[in-house]
C-alpha cells in the first residue's frame, strides 16, 4: 500500500514561541522516524507534501480547503490512500469541505491532528497518526474520514467537542464509523450521496453564522443582515425555533429571503434534527422559505453552503440542495 500525506499545519507540528504555539517542528522527519521498522508500512511507501505556509487551522479559509483538494487530486494516482494532517480547531470544516469536492475520488482520505505537539512526552500525535494510517490501510474506510482519539468518523458528520480531551471529536447524529482496538470495531453508517461531477474550486463567500439568544431584537438581527450576505446560517433553538413573539423578528428573516438571501436554519443542539414548523416558533420562517439543516453538523452545513455558492448556486436552488445529500452529510428521508 502507498500512502500520501498532506501536512497543512496545526498543533501536531507546533513549537513554543514568545507568542504561543506556532508551526515549526520537523514533522516530516518525525513521521519517517515513526514509520521506520514498521512491518506493514515503511518510509518508502509514503509520499509527503508540506503546504506553504503551514497554518493554525483557525486561519483556514475556503482557499485553504481548495489547496488541500488540489494536493489530493495531484497525488490521486501516486497512492492508495491519503492522510491529511490538520489543526483540530477547524478540521471538521475542512473534512466536510473536501468530502463535497472529491465525491468521485475513489480512494480513502483520513484527516487527523493532535491536542499536544509531537514533541511532548504525553502527546497524542503518534497515536492519532498511526490510527489514521491504520484506517487508511484497513481497506474498509471509504470517502473522507477523520480519526481522533480511538475513533474514526465520517468527515462530514463530525464535530470538535473538546479543546483538551484526547477524544476531542464526536459524531452526534451517527456515532463513529469505527473504534480502534484489537481488533477494530466497525459500524455501518449511511454515507450515500448523489456526488458532484467536476466541481468548481472553492472561493470566499459572505455567509454569516448568526446565533439566536433570548432577548435578541429585530433591530439587532436586521443590522447583522445588512449589507445583504450571499446566504445566512442561522443557529436557532431546538428543532429550529426562533423568538417569534419578538416584534418584527420573523419579518426580518422573511425580508432577507424575499431579497434573495437563502436562510439556512441550524440548531444550537449538537444532536438532533432541524424540523422547521414543528412548533409555532419555527413556523413563520418556514412559511417564508427558510430551510433547515436536517441532521447536518454546523461544520458540514457551513462548508456545504460555501460549496454550493462556489458552484454558482444561490436563492431557491441553493436552499433546495441543502436538503439533498451530496456526500452522505445528512440522513435522507425515505
Ligand atoms: N489551534 C490549533 C489548530 O487548530 C489546535 C490544534 O491543532 N489542536 O491548528
From TrEMBL:
Return the Pfam families for the record: Asparaginase, Asparaginase_C
Task: Please state every residue range assigned to the domain named L-asparaginase N-terminal.
Answer: 2-184
Q: What residues does substrate bind to?
A: 57, 88-89
Q: Name one GO molecular function term.
A: asparaginase activity
- List the coiled-coil residues: none
The catalytic site is made up of 11, 88
Protein name per its UniProtKB record: L-asparaginase 1
Which organism does this sequence originate in?
Pseudoscardovia radai
Amino acid at each position: 500500500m502507498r500512502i500520501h500525506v498532506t501536512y497543512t499545519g496545526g498543533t501536531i507540528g507546533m513549537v513554543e514561541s514568545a507568542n504561543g504555539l506556532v508551526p515549526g517542528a520537523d514533522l516530516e522527519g518525525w513521521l519517517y522516524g515513526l514509520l521506520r521498522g514498521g512491518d506493514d508500512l515503511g518510509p518508502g511507501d509514503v509520499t509527503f507534501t508540506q503546504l506553504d505556509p503551514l497554518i493554525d487551522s483557525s486561519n483556514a479559509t475556503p482557499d485553504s480547503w481548495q489547496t488541500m483538494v488540489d494536493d489530493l487530486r495531484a497525488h490521486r494516482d501516486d497512492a492508495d490512500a491519503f492522510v491529511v494532517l490538520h489543526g483540530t480547531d477547524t478540521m471538521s470544516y475542512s473534512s466536510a469541505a473536501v468530502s463535497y469536492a472529491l465525491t468521485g475520488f475513489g480512494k480513502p482520505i483520513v484527516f487527523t491532528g493532535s491536542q499536544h505537539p509531537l514533541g511532548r512526552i504525553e502527546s497524542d500525535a503518534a497515536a492519532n497518526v498511526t490510527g489514521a494510517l491504520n484506517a487508511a490501510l484497513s481497506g474498509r474506510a471509504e470517502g473522507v474520514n477523520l480519526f481522533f482519539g480511538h475513533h474514526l468518523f465520517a468527515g462530514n458528520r463530525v464535530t470538535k467537542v473538546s479543546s483538551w480531551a484526547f477524544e476531542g471529536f464526536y459524531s452526534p447524529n451517527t456515532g463513529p464509523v469505527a473504534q480502534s482496538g484489537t481488533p477494530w470495531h466497525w459500524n455501518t453508517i449511511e454515507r450515500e450521496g448523489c456526488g458532484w461531477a467536476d466541481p468548481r474550486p472553492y472561493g470566499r463567500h459572505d455567509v454569516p453564522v448568526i446565533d439566536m439568544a433570548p432577548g435578541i431584537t429585530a433591530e439587532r438581527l436586521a443590522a447583522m443582515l445588512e449589507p445583504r450576505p450571499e446566504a445566512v446560517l442561522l443557529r436557532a433553538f431546538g428543532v429550529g425555533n426562533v423568538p417569534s413573539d419578538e416584534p418584527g423578528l420573523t419579518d426580518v428573516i422573511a425580508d432577507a429571503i424575499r431579497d434573495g438571501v437563502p436562510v439556512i436554519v441550524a440548531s444550537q443542539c449538537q444532536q438532533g434534527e432541524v424540523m422547521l414548523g414543528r412548533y409555532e416558533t419555527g413556523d413563520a420562517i418556514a412559511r417564508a422559505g427558510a430551510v433547515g439543516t436536517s441532521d447536518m453538523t454546523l461544520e458540514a452545513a457551513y462548508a456545504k453552503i460555501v460549496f454550493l455558492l462556489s458552484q454558482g448556486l444561490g436563492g431557491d436552488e441553493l436552499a433546495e440542495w441543502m436538503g439533498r445529500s451530496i456526500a452522505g452529510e445528512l440522513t435522507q428521508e425515505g
